[in-house]
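Q: Okay, next protein. This is Pyrophosphate--fructose 6-phosphate 1-phosphotransferase subunit alpha from Aegilops tauschii subsp. strangulata. I've checked the sequence twice, so it should be correct. Can you predict the 3D structure?
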Amino acid sequence: TGRKGRRESDGTLIADHRSNHPVHRNLSFLGGNQGTAVKVEYGDAAIAADGADAHVIRRAFPHTYGQRLAHFLPKTANAPDATVITEHPAVRVGVVFSGRQSPGGHNVVWGLYNAINSHNPSSELIGFLGGTDGLFAQKTLEITEEVFSSYKNQGGYYMLGRTRDQIRTTEQVKAAMTTCQALKLDALVIIGGVTSNTDAAQLAETFAESKCSTKVVGVPVTLNGDLKNQFVETTVGFDTICKVNSQLISNVCTDALSAEKYYYFIRLMGRKASHVALECALQSHPNMVLLGEEVAASKLTISDITKQICDAVQARAEKDKYHGVILIPEGLVESIPELYALLQEIHGLHDKGVFIENISSHLSPWASALFDFLPPFIRKQLLLHPESDDSAQLSQIETEKLLAQLVETEINKRLEEGTYKGKKFNAICHFFGYQARGALPSNFDCDYAYVLGHVCYHILAAGLNGYMATVTNLKSPVDQWKCGAAPITSMMTVRGWSRGPTASQIGKPAVHIASVDLKGKAYELLRQNSSSLLMEDIYKNPGPLQFQGPGADLKPISLCVEDRDYMGRIKQLQEYLEKVKNIVKPGCSQDVL
């Protein structure tokens, strides 16, 4: 079993084939094929994206804010100022899965294991069983080639497992430090998303302050694709999730076009941001996709959204079309202003210890009226206790059923009034989430995760603490990827938030979720085709996730259309500025000025 660190072969040809499938092993672009040397070039000190946040972040992270960027280079790179690390003493490294399972997570461990052993075979990799709870309780498994052999290129986190997804309270941080000291760990690698990497940054700061020698490294692994910033182009697992979901969506599109009598409302996992919904829409071409960022920007109410869908249904009915497919991100419920305000009020009552059965009677008049308007099943789901990050339990709130019911009610009303003259409206609802997050990872996610694992060792070899492993230029072939490390604190922002009408503003530095950029090229591509997608049924079926042949090495559309060579642009601008500096000197002509 996974808890014993060994999974017996399940006998399926695909799973066994994937375990034996080699990832991209030519790591010369990382320096991985140059013996035991690690070549690192340090850049400028990294700063917060928003200068106004810098003083708050620096005050909260005095030991780890303002550290320099690190770039890991091949041996042939022309970098006279680079440092070449040739001494690699045996190390003990701990690794923990923190956060929801995401396809490719196992390959981070594989890459890390191979990297530490290739540099010193006496090094040890220690996995924590049961996620962060296992970290606190010192439940460990030594990872060896024999242990890991059946987890290569496999989905899920079942080799080590995961439980609680945080290292946040004073007791939890203290327990983590006690474990690292007791096991004499040189480094702790935390695999997870925005919340897990925020915790990793705090842990690194605490370790530095306490003079604990363990270095903390974060890895961007989350299916939501919402850990995106100037240093991180996408996350491990996002590609797989979108490809698996897109096939399911496309199958539903084909079914809708065949039966010609159902509207499918499909909710997609992805937490607060709508990256998964956007990418799946680009891959499968449904009739509509409701992005939470659009709804929030336009301040659309639940009534506005209902009307928008009903108008689309009516327009299609006028063309004798009584079917369609509508994508809904699970975070939509927190993007609708009145529902978000209601959730905040409910969560505030949870904080005050009000029992679930009594919450409805403690709501303010407006919130009580809205609560009573909603169907009973949604009321029950909205009353669920919030997650550890204070967000609603989005996977449990059936927004797709709510919208389907409201649309059906409105269409029936229009039918009675004579403003809608079409056939009866029929809705079928789906939630695609758990079906995809345990999938075998795509070739891209396998390679990306494996390389990140190697980068983690390079960070350790360079003696860096509080950094995230990064790989950029991802839309190019693997041998053109650029590997590095960025201080997690440079990815932080400070956002004020309040709960309830009398709550005070609180601002705490954190790696926050990156929303869909409504000015970005991926969103622009979707909107260019939105009218034709709505009316013309130009459904697209990418087929099942491919491991060989045509389509096997395709990457997310939203990754490929964006120009995300952030560091490349900085370097180019710095070169221009240096040229200007050399030209603009006392005595230069007026024409130069």
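A: Here is a summary of the prediction. The first strand starts at residue 38 and ends at 45. The chain is about 40% helix and 15% strand.
Q: Noted. On to the next one.
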